[in-house]
Amino acid sequence: MLALGIMGSPRKKGNTDLLLSSFMNEIGKYGVRTETIEIGKKKISPCIECGICEKNGFCSIDDEMNEVYPLLREADIIVLATPIFFYNTPAQTKALIDRSQTLWSRKYSLNLVDPGRKNRRGFLLAVGATKGANLFEGMKLTAKYFFDAAGAGFEGSLTYKKIENRGDIEAHPTVKDELRESAGNILKPYLKRKKILFACRENACRSQMASAFASYLAGDKIDSLNGGSSPSAEINPLMVDVMHERGIDMAFRRPKSIDLAISKEKPDIIITMGCGEECPFVPGAERENWELPDPAGKPVEFMRIVRDEIEKKVVELCGKL
Ligand SMILES: Cc1cc2nc3c(=O)[nH]c(=O)nc-3n(C[C@H](O)[C@H](O)[C@H](O)COP(=O)(O)O)c2cc1C
Predict the structure, then answer these.
(1) pTM for the whole structure
(2) Residues 114 and 107: beta-carbon distance below 8 Å
(3) 3-state DSSP call for residue 114?
(4) Measured from the CA of 169, which atom of ligand 1 is nearest?
(5) What is the pLDDT of residues 45-72, one digit of tens each?
(6) Environment class of 94 (CB within 10 Å of its CB; exposed 0-12, middle 13-18, buried 19+)
(7) SS3 state at 291
């Protein structure tokens, strides 16, 4: 599983930076893969309200937001960390949030179902210099609706007033304990899941479908990992089409290596898709092979047959669990 942090302050080594890195560090102690987006390093333009994403599900602006969509989709936990700038988030972070309108459109205009939607959680960390009672109210609403667009429930927040100068947060008397406790609480429901690696050669088609069905049907019981022994550059577009026929949204998925998929978590079960791929030996992991034909380069009808076969096998697997 992946925990994604968004470092929403343009100030490096400031309060937000310190807060988020401590939180991600606590999460990492549970063997969870973590990644952080530093907003100050990203070139993300604001939404121009062209309406294109509402029609075709993709943003018309070609910039570094294209690296963010796949991470938002892959993440099980999204941590938005931000200073308060005029009762909201800095403009750079707000641009990222506004551009998640693409995900909002896929969900609400195109009615596509993101397989991770039920098991993704969002958490807010925020700091501000003043002490007004409503200091974080606007930000909490912004975070709630950003998380909703990204297919995450609002799990909670930690907010700190009277934090102004770089490093002020370090002197806060309770912050360390609160971060540790919140990290444990947010991870609790994930830790009891069975870790299953779906592996094939390219991670472009069969293992992607199997992993998506597993998340879609039993994301509360299965930590669904996927990877390829020799990952291709992109996922198979015909596979995306046939999953869309089922209403399942596969956009923004990227093939990755088996090594990356299991770099932090050791799977309980490894399921291969029948293409003779080489998987690393993981002590204690059960192995299973599904003899599925490779649909790459075949017509759409063939892709549908493989999709249905995979769905059947995942349903059986969930029944066994
Ligand atoms: C442009 C700007 C606007 C700000 N607006 C607010 C505000 O509305 N309320 C507040 O309490 N603090 C405000 N602050 C203070 C920051 O929230 C505070 O210094 C915070 O600790 C900065 O976090 P950082 O070190 O992670 O950047 C503002 C700071 C800047 C630079």
Answers:
(1) 0.95
(2) yes
(3) coil
(4) 21
(5) 999 999 999 999 999 999 999 999 999 9
(6) buried
(7) coil
